[in-house]
Amino acid sequence: MAPMAGCTDLPFRLIAREHGAKFCFYEMVDSNSLIYGHRETYGNLKTDKDDLPIAVQLLGSDPSGMLKAADKLLKLVKVSFLDINCACPAKKVIKKKSGAHLLRDAPRLYSILERLILELSLPVTIKIRTGFDKKDDDHIVEMAKHCEDIGVSAIFVHGRLKTQGYAGGVDYGAIKKIKEAVRIPVFGSGNIFSGEDAKLMLDETGCDGILVARGGLGNPWIFKEIEEYIDTGAAAKEISLAEKKKTLRKHLDYIDQYKSISPSGKVGFMRKVAIWYLKSIPGASDIRARITRKTKSCRDILKIVMDI
Ligand SMILES: Cc1cc2nc3c(=O)[nH]c(=O)nc-3n(C[C@H](O)[C@H](O)[C@H](O)COP(=O)(O)O)c2cc1C
Q1: Cα three-residue angle 217-218-223, rounded to 5 degrees
Q2: Predicted TM-score (pTM) of this structure
Q3: Measured between alpha carbons, how far is 140 from 177 in angstroms, rounded to an integer?
Q4: Is 88 an annotated catalytic residue?
Q5: DSSP string over 108-166
Q6: Relative to the CA of 87, which ligand 1 atom is closest?
Q7: 294 band by pLDDT with thresholds 50, 70 and 90
Q8: CA pair distance 179, 174, nearest whole angstrom
């Protein structure tokens, strides 16, 4: 399961794991929020004994700040590795020279990695895109090789440029070039919504593994679907409405139980999650409108869901 800020919280991860997700990430942690002790950041680090194996991803731009944040973070969580976000396209992130900005500021990325790899005693990985604003495979391959030389343990590649956001096709060719240029594991990300998409990513790039991102929102069944398709070529099973309602109910229960946010924030979050699950059923737009406009509590949301 890919890291997704605002989505891959503990309730999401528990549901994903119950449905076959093999590995998850905490939601991305901003190094400054951690250093300055923002409550929400600490809330996002909530975990559970069943929430393993797991990694954490750090966002930031300053090598000393990143190290300070990583030290703090690693006292709070037990993770398999620390990932550095070099992929986030958000304007406010780029302005602070973090996320995908690091793709056009290689010296800054290398100093962050050198500092962390020297000082920390766990594997450090990077999540990159195939470029910032123009396709330049030689540049991204050189960067990947340099990161490997510094000591990065694996590379997660979202096969789009920063300027593409989340739209358009995936550049399998660029991921393949990165995979062929390094010896460390390379994982492909982008447009994985089915078993066929997963196989296409593996076949076209030769990558060592894949990340499921938007394809897992309201669709935890995707993990088994991918596994079965790759193992046997079996077509995806239709998920019944009853199964969707049951799983959504459990997901909302987990949110109620685990998410430490204001009551109104919690209901807003539950609406978002309910809409994920119901997006492809008949009458989805009417249900979405009712959930958005007419619910003030978890019970209101459940009533609409159970009446479907
Ligand atoms: C809502 C949302 C939040 C995301 N947050 C992060 C993040 O915090 N860190 C990260 O590396 N990638 C993040 N991503 C990118 C995904 O991990 C993934 O690489 C990307 O969505 C491409 O995969 P897809 O086309 O299958 O969705 C996010 C994507 C979405 C849609």
Answers
A1: 75
A2: 0.97
A3: 9
A4: yes
A5: HHHHHHHHHHHH-SS-EEEEEEEESSS--HHHHHHHHHHHHHHT---EEEEEEEGGGTT
A6: 11
A7: confident
A8: 9
Q: Greatest CA separation found in the chain?
A: 57
Q: Which atom from ligand 1 is nearest to the alpha carbon of 27?
A: 8
Q: With a cut of 90, say whether residue 39 has pLDDT above it.
A: no
Report the distance separating Cα 248 and Cα 269, nearest Å.
13
8 A C-beta contact, residue 178 and residue 186: yes
* Distance from the alpha carbon of residue 2 to the mean position of ligand 1, in angstroms: 7
- The predicted-structure confidence for 102-129, as pLDDT tens digits, reads as follows 999 999 999 999 999 999 999 999 999 9
SS3 210: strand
**Whether the CB of 126 sits within 6 Å of ligand 1:** no
In this prediction, residues 264-292 reach a mean pLDDT of 94
Among 7, 24, 86, 88, the one annotated catalytic: 88
Report how far ligand 1's centroid is from the alpha carbon of 4 (Å).
Answer: 5
pLDDT at 41: 87
Nearest to 129 by CA among 95, 93, 178, 80: 178
